[in-house]
Design brief:
By secondary structure, this protein is α/β, with parallel strands linked by helices. The protein has twelve helices and 13 strands. Bound molecules: iron/sulfur cluster (2 copies).
Length: 368
């Protein structure tokens, strides 16, 4: 069965029963009291005349009152996806029993290994993941490659593989020790992602100014029912408890960081597409394909600063400092105000060993 192209991300709660070190949510495990009647959500979705995939996320969705009943209601006419830490075992069993796997796009199950070890919950995780897999759900077990976990990933991967569970490395998005990830990953992390090139798609690009159908085909809903254009652009479109007015078509993106799902909803030119693909391959360490895409971008728009910077990054990776300097100089000449290009150039000229930063500013032009 083909999944619909319309996505609504329902941020059910910011509360969670885990307290992962790298989580940016407040660690609040008190009962969830802010709830929405699921009928208001199904009424809203049905009234659009479209089928939707409702991405249930948090916090931890399984601590939301009536979670499995909500899933049952939503999957009558629509589809769901769930982001979960898989820790509320009784509800996971209920979910596995009552929900049709064909109506579930995917279960993104996060293995927060240090938190699992802290609560002595690794065996329960394996049991719950196996139950869902055996029932025929598409389970993607994510392992966030936080810089502090890079060293143990392969050992953990082998341990879980012995239980029939495949770990998918997921890029850490955020800052650690003053560097922004995933752009700052070094060789070790890139080697981890080399077997999972699809993870390169989860990059927070800057699509500001690019036409996007978010607000019509992609939405975000808050715990109180407020509907926004998308997870990146918080423009309010209404509230399911009252009225929601979707956008008519595509409109330029207004923000500088786009969440990973945005890439399925924007309208890219050939140049922008080549730049996006170049970055996606570069982040996961597929330098040949990255180079192919970025050279295509270079042909379409010679001296585009983002393409030049990223071709400089690839040159540096293969040890060609002279070409890297030339590329970074060209990028900086086009955008003298861009600190990333300046840093990359100066560090390369100084002969430093460093992981040069990848540019995500797909819509950048020359400075006027
Ligand atoms: S399970 Fe997810 S939401 Fe909960 S603390 Fe960990 S990262 Fe945050
Ligand atoms: S490009 Fe991304 S952030 Fe911008 S409107 Fe589209 S989905 Fe939202």
């Amino acid at each position: 069965m083909d999944m619909p192209v319309n996505n609504i991300i329902w941020n059910m709660t910011r509360k969670c029963n885990f307290r992962c070190e790298y989580c940016y949510f407040p660690h609040d495990n008190t009962p969830v009291t802010e709830t929405l009647p699921v009928s208001r959500i199904t009424d809203f979705l049905d009234a659009t005349g479209e089928q939707w995939v409702v991405g249930l996320t948090g916090g931890e969705p399984f601590i939301y009152p009536g979670m499995v009943d909500i899933c049952a209601e939503l999957t009558k006419n629509h589809f769901i996806g769930v982001d979960t830490n898989l820790s509320v075992s009784s509800k996971v069993r209920d979910f596995a029993e009552r929900i049709d796997p064909a109506r579930v796009q995917d279960l993104y199950v996060a293995l927060h290994i240090e938190e699992r070890e802290r609560i002595k919950g690794t065996d329960a995780f394996i049991k719950n993941a196996r139950l869902l897999l055996d029932k025929g759900f598409k389970v993607i077990v994510n392992y966030v490659i936080h810089p502090t976990l890079e060293a143990r990933f392969h050992t953990d991967k082998e341990f879980f593989a012995d239980h029939g569970i495949t770990l998918t490395p997921r890029p850490f998005k955020g800052e650690f020790e003053g560097r922004r990830y995933p752009e700052a990953y070094g060789d070790r992390a890139r080697a981890i992602f080399a077997d999972h090139p699809e993870q390169g798609k989860k990059i927070a690009f800057n699509f500001q100014g690019v036409p996007c159908s978010a607000g019509k085909t992609l939405l975000r809903m808050e715990p109180d029912g407020t509907v926004m254009r998308c997870p990146g652009d918080k423009t309010k479109l209404g509230n399911v408890m009252d009225n929601v007015r979707l956008l008519d078509g595509t409109e330029p993106c207004n923000v500088k960081r786009c969440p990973c799902r945005g890439v399925d909803h924007i309208s890219l030119t050939s140049l922008q597409k080549a730049l996006v693909e170049g970055v996606q391959f570069a982040v996961v360490g597929d330098n040949d394909k990255a180079s192919e895409s970025l050279n295509r971008a270079d042909e379409l728009s010679p001296e585009h600063p983002c393409a030049q910077n990223n071709l400089g990054v690839l040159a540096l990776r293969r040890g060609d400092r002279a070409e890297a300097v030339r590329r970074f100089e060209t990028a900086l000449a086009a955008r003298p105000d861009h600190p990333l290009y300046a840093d990359n150039l100066h560090n390369t000229q100084d002969g430093m060993h460093f992981d040069a930063g990848i540019c995500l500013d797909v819509n950048h032009r020359h400075a006027k």
